[in-house]
Design brief:
Blueprint lengths: L1 H28 L7 H8 L13 H9 L12 H12 L9 E5 L20 H5 L17 H5 L5 E4 L2 E4 L9 H5 L5 E5 L4 E3 L7 H7 L9 H5 L5 E4 L2 E4 L9 H5 L5 E4 L5 E3 L1
Antiparallel strand pairs: 1-4, 2-3, 5-8, 6-7, 8-9
Helix pairs in contact: 2-3, 2-4
């Protein structure tokens, strides 16, 4: 009776030992070694997991950097500081890009811009844009229903008087708001840019004047006033080349609609 119990138990035990040794050998034989730099890179990342880098999260980005698939400066949230730390780990130069911030290129507040109908649908800019381009009389202006604000993982956007505004102190330039805007009027601009045409309308001047008090009317006064030729026209819309701009402010002084804004380091916009 005892032998009848011992024999099956011994067989099972032997098989267990054999399988265990086999698994141990297989784990050693087929082990995929993890580069020790991956956790080091992951440690210096901000941990936002916002996917602004183009990868599923910070873990994916860290692995991509070590595998040579992503730049060390590829984390927009971490900026130059994180890029320098990653570069040190990887033993390369960071070549970090200039710090940027999101900017809504529109100043068509409820006071400044007319509306063509009262929108009572879903509080979503994409949905409103599907109905005749949204309630704003300007087809190029901010719809102001806060889709970008809800998309921002850092609570860096608020909506005031019908226009989305970015809070520089919270913005990490992740670019998620840029992708969420159906009007494509949110852009990432260098923090050092000090003058901007805060209008996106490509309508003719007469139509702009009819719809908005502060839109660019294409009068070209700024183009003529700029002493360094930093302003050109995209159709009827003035565009400032900030690489040429010397921040003299002459363009803002002559703009009849105050569409050109100058700002301080805090990026609080001031009409000049």
């Amino acid at each position: 009776m005892v032998i009848q119990v011992i024999i099956p138990v011994s067989i099972v035990g032997a098989l267990g030992l054999l399988f265990g040794l086999g698994l141990s050998y297989a784990s050693k034989k087929f082990e995929v070694k993890t580069d020790e730099r991956i956790p080091l890179v992951r440690e210096v990342l901000p941990g936002a997991n916002c996917a602004a880098c183009g990868y599923t999260g910070c873990d994916g980005f860290a692995e991509a950097v070590v595998n040579g698939e992503a730049k060390v400066s590829g984390c927009p949230v971490g900026g130059a500081t994180v890029a320098d730390k990653i570069a040190e780990i990887m033993g390369v130069e960071s070549n970090a890009e200039e710090e940027k911030v999101a900017q809504v290129i529109c100043n068509g507040t409820k006071e400044n811009c007319k509306t063509k109908y009262n929108y009572e649908g879903i509080e979503d800019c994409v949905s409103a844009n599907a109905i005749y381009g949204g309630p704003s009389a300007c087809l190029y202006g901010c719809i102001g229903l806060g889709t970008c604000a809800r998309a921002c993982p850092f609570d860096a956007i608020i909506v005031e008087d019908g226009v989305a505004k970015v809070m520089d102190g919270k913005c990490t330039a992740c670019g998620i708001c840029v992708k969420s805007c159906p009007k494509n009027i949110i852009r990432l601009v260098p923090k050092t840019d000090r003058h901007m045409v805060n209008c996106s309308s490509l309508d003719k001047g007469a139509i702009v004047r009819q719809n908005c008090k502060v839109g660019c009317i294409g009068c070209m006064r700024c183009v003529k006033a700029c002493p360094v030729g930093a302003i050109s026209m995209n159709g009827t819309l003035a565009v400032i080349d900030n690489e040429k701009c010397t921040n003299c402010g002459e363009c803002a002084k002559v703009c009849p609609t105050k569409a050109i804004k100058s700002y301080s380091g805090s990026r609080t916009y001031i009409c000049v």
